[in-house]
Amino acid sequence: MPPVAFPAPTAASGGDIASADPLRYLFGYNARSTARSLAEFTRAAGTAWVDTLTRAATPLEAATRGLLWLTAMRDRRAPDWHLPNDIVLSTPFAHLRDFTDDAHRATDVVPTLVLPPQAGHSSTVVDFSPAQSQLAVIKAAGLTRLYSLEWRAATAATRHVTITDYLDVIDRSIRRMGGRANLVGNCQGGWLAAIYAALHPERVHTLTLAGAPIDFHAGESVIAASTIALTRAFGLAPYRALVAVGGGNMPGRAVLGNFIGIQPHSEIARQLQLLENIDDPAHVERYRVFEDWFKHTQDIPGSFYLWLVEHLFRRNQLISGDLVIDGRRADLAAITCPLFLLAGSTDHITPPAQLFAAADAVGTPREQITRRTANGGHLGLFMGRDALREDWPPLLEAVYEHSVPRADPAAGGAGAAERTLAAATAVADPRGTRRVPAP
Q: What is the pTM of this model?
């Protein structure tokens, strides 16, 4: 497993074996991961034998299937946005995309701004496909004045972009949207949203965080354990070396390698499952859409990356209250708006404890904090059909209720149940569909 594509803490905390004894944790984790990979090979081999006997396939037929398999694995395309939108603000490192339909521009609802993950992949994960779109679910929930930032791939010209630049583009976006917005932050977009909300609480109406590390040292994480072991031995030198190799930026391919290395059995299962279902056009298309997003990487600005390594993953300053940006302390206690937290029960990238720590750090009244745990892992929180149909709609309904004037019963219109149902049905029903294994 490449241990240096992601940063992590360097000091033990909370008694978790991942931080207290990282080498022991990694030994056990890698042993389990190897066993799962071998089990997947064994399962696939057995399926292949049964399939061969059932089909009575000729060598030519077997070769044809193998060629189709290889072609499908190599047929990659750049991911794209699916919902209609316009770029209304642009910088060299980010675009602001407006997904508001013309018919809803005058709607009396607080606008919503989505901050996608930023971990070496395209921001289109929040609009993953026509059948799996977080943005479509948000719109269907009644939050129709909808915007999303798009993090652009780093270049030589943007390698010196800083945390200040990212916070500034969020502020410019919200000002353009009217000066106050609901913030939805996914993964690294979540800690960025939390920092912005701590510095500008007057501009954040509600804050929703999904799979976002807030206490970077909490829980058991292979990412944390591997990097703790590395930094104890070498400090930050490996991270600086990676940025140097990337010409001043963090290479997206290194981040992808780390994702695959953490759960190799998912990669193995996905490719072998493709071979088993190569005659099923629907499965091949689901595979292609995921691989197009997952394998299409983009670099991260080097200065920004090294900043987050030092101040968040290593020093854990967001949760400690010691984070200072441009002379201002980013104190989570300054956040008093309604807070919604969504974690994945099997999230190995951001264990639930890393997210739920926000509940104890903010100044939001306890009765206005909602915690929810979805069944599944990390990426499924943003693009998985189960989370989009079952977990996001009730959270978004609560955000909506905070975002419109108190309803007049005589005014008519869709009620809470209708909005929640509309949000759920904005995503294709996953029943009866074989999942494409994802990290």
A: 0.90
